[in-house]
Design goal:
By secondary structure, the protein is an alpha/beta fold. The chain has helices at residues 8-14, 107-118, 124-131, 135-151, 201-211, 213-217, 228-237, 247-270, 279-282, 296-309, 314-329, 334-351, 354-365, 367-375, 382-397, 404-415, and strands at residues 19-27, 30-37, 52-66, 69-81, 91-93, 161-170, 179-186, 191-197, 221-224, 242-244. Helix 2 crosses helix 4 (135-151), helix 3 packs across helix 4 (135-151) and helix 8 (247-270) packs antiparallel against helix 11 (314-329).
């Protein structure tokens, strides 16, 4: 006996084209809704003869929740038979674009699941639990709705400024090394363009080659960290673009020099690594702080501990070198920056500290990219670093990744695509005066 009673209100509530809804009941807290198609006349796909009924089978498929309850559609699926004895088509089951064969989710439920991951930021496991399906089923739904958008050439159109940086993907284990990825970000629209395994010149060179000469000719600006491989690839493919090393990456080199000198002096003077009571260890963080952010008391405290733990003034010289390099980025214009860079070189040479000589040589190799910071209106890799932070939130939410394809899909789906979201209309124009 059919449970479909042709309730027009229930059919409208379900909203599946070509279906009629009937009886509903609660089963273990879930709403089970019986549905069937409304088609009564079906032709054979082989000969076109009108088919006759050949029984029914029941298919369970999960749908969007209704009124906050998980919903299962109980589809009373018709089977049809061709009455022509000579037709090669014997029997078949009816189908619908809204429910794929052997699917456990309706297509609109799969779209909503993908939206929970790409738009709302849920993890695959969280979205799968919401619909009561397995992780692999949820991941396939996300892939089916995300990969076509990732592969769409139009996603990369209109890009004029890019940022390139490396980021760790997997930490080292007893059997494998640390693996890295190269991330390319659209600086104007703040979107991830791609996540490529590896961090070498060849990796970036291959990606730019795939984009083609026309795409590369549109790039006017590229920001990067001081990596020679990245610079060579960008110079080869983007000869008309301005390359910029921003203040974050340049000052990070100076901070690394401070840490290297501090550790060396610590070992030389005390014969062990830094400990809680050691003068240089106490000020390890203060040495990396900008001068203008130090109060007078804090500065005097740092100075006193330097006098106690830095007998030759090498750590103090490194701190001053870092401030000289910061002054280069705070210059009024490119000419002013060049004069301040000369002061930085003179200080590093006079200090006669090996780590500062290395820092000066590295900075000299990247001087033109540093001066381009002023020529381009203080362009920076800040938006690339911001995407690193957002990507780490996605990684933590997913409890880590081991598959690069899934990792790339999650990052681009969440941070690289602008998904259409329906606007929400206001019920009232303004809040009532009585509202708290």
């Amino acid at each position: 006996m059919s449970r479909i009673q042709g309730s027009r209100g229930a059919t409208m509530l379900v909203g599946l084209a070509g279906f009629a809804a009937g009886v509903s009941e609660l089963v273990d807290g879930e709403l089970w809704l019986w549905v069937e198609t409304v088609a009564d006349v079906v032709g054979c796909s082989g000969c076109g003869t009108r088919a006759v009924g050949h029984g029914r089978s029941v298919t369970l498929v999960r749908d969007l929740p209704m009124a906050g309850r998980p919903t299962v559609l109980v589809w009373s699926k018709r089977r049809w038979r061709c009455p022509e004895a000579d037709c090669a088509v014997r029997t078949w089951s009816e189908g619908t674009p809204e429910i794929a064969p052997r699917a456990v989710l309706t297509e609109r439920a799969r779209r909503r699941l993908a939206g929970m991951v790409n738009v709302d930021g849920d993890s695959i496991a969280g979205a799968a639990a919401h619909f009561g399906v397995g992780w692999h089923t949820a991941n396939r739904a996300v892939a089916d709705h995300t990969d076509p958008r990732i592969d769409d050439p139009g996603r990369l159109e209109g890009v004029e400024a890019i940022g390139v940086d490396e980021k760790r993907f997997l930490n080292a284990t007893p059997t494998s090394r640390t693996t890295y990825t190269t991330r390319i970000v659209d600086l104007d629209r703040h979107r991830i363009l791609d996540v490529i395994p590896g961090r070498s010149r060849d990796v970036l060179d291959g990606w730019l080659t795939q984009r083609g000469d026309h795409w590369c000719a549109q790039i006017r600006l590229a920001t990067l960290d001081p990596a020679a491989g990245y610079r060579k690839a960008l110079e080869d493919h983007l000869p008309q673009a301005t390359l910029v090393v921003d203040h974050f990456h340049a000052i990070r080199l100076a901070n690394q020099a401070i840490d290297d000198i501090r550790r060396r002096v610590q070992q030389h003077t005390l014969g062990h690594r830094g400990r809680k009571a050691d003068p240089l260890y106490q000020i390890r963080r203060v040495l990396l702080t900008a001068d203008e952010r130090l109060s007078e008391d804090r500065f005097q405290w740092m100075k006193a501990l330097l006098n106690a733990g830095d007998p030759d003034g090498e750590v103090a010289a490194a701190w001053i070198a870092k401030e000289h390099l910061r002054d280069v980025y705070r210059a009024r214009d490119k000419a002013h920056a060049r004069r301040r860079m000369i002061a930085f070189y003179i200080h590093c040479a006079d200090a006669e500290v090996p780590e500062l000589n290395r820092l000066a040589r590295t900075t000299s190799c990247w001087a033109e990219q540093i001066f381009a910071y002023h020529r381009t209106g203080k362009a920076s890799n800040g938006r690339v670093e911001n995407t690193h932070m957002l990507a780490e939130k996605i990684r933590r939410n997913a409890h880590g990744f081991t598959n690069h394809d899934n990792y790339r899909r999650r990052l681009i789906g969440r941070l690289g695509i602008k998904w259409p979201t329906p606007p929400t209309a206001r019920i009232r124009g303004c809040q009532p005066h009585s509202a708290a």
